[in-house]
């Protein structure tokens, strides 16, 4: 039995239409056209590679082995520019310091549990490391002064936001909320606009 899915290309087909504003179209197209190779601007190369490995662990993309949706570059760019969402947990330091400490602490945990760097671990071992961080019980000296579960929560939320802001991820779930021109009129239960994506089989 096949898994229901949204047909590939249906969301992207909306981008050039009048249903999408110029500003939204430009932002989404930029994400589609992002180069595969990215040089970190804020994080050190080793820390950036670690963040890429963490992102791949939390958001595996086996259907895109050659060109996964890039997540780490957006984090690096935000940290470089000093952007934030305007608040943070008082248990965590400012974002730049939080990521610097948190990524280093993940490495400490990988070494403590498996005597290897996180990027070199197998998928199951990486998941065990991240589960310990999420549970707030990871080994490592840095975690004594950095709230592991809060760091995991913040990092996961940011990576999730980046992932689902990408047109390919939106296509996975049939999201067409960006095609909001001229307006939504069919808002009743099980009602759909003509431009909404039908579920396939």
Textual characterization of the structure:
- It is a single chain.
- It is built from seven helices and no strands.
- The protein is mainly alpha-helical.
- The chain has a domain of 137 residues.
- It is elongated.
- The N and C termini lie close together (9 Å).
- This is Gluconate 2-dehydrogenase.
- InterPro entries: Gluconate_2DH_su3 (IPR027056).
- Pfam families: Gluconate_2-dh3.
Structural class: mainly alpha
Largest sheet: none
User: Roughly how much helix do the residues carry, as a percent range?
Assistant: 40-55%
The overall pLDDT average reads 92
* Terminal CA distance: 9 Å
Q: Uncertain regions: pLDDT < 50 for 5+ in a row?
A: none
What is the CA-atom radius of gyration, in angstroms?
19 Å
Shape type = elongated
SSE arrangement, N to C = HHHHHHH
Q: Please, how many helices?
A: 7
* Portion in beta strands: under 5%
Overall strand count = 0
Pfam families: Gluconate_2-dh3
Protein name: Gluconate 2-dehydrogenase
InterPro entries: Gluconate_2DH_su3
